[in-house]
Amino acid sequence: QVQLVESGGGLVQAGGSLRLSCAASGRTFVGYAMGWFRQAPGKEREFVAVIRWSGGATSYANSVKGRFTISRDKAKYTVDLQMNSLKPEDTAVYYCAARIGWGTTDFDSWGQGTQVTVSS
Question: How many CB atoms lie within 10 A of CB 45?
Answer without folding.
Answer: 16
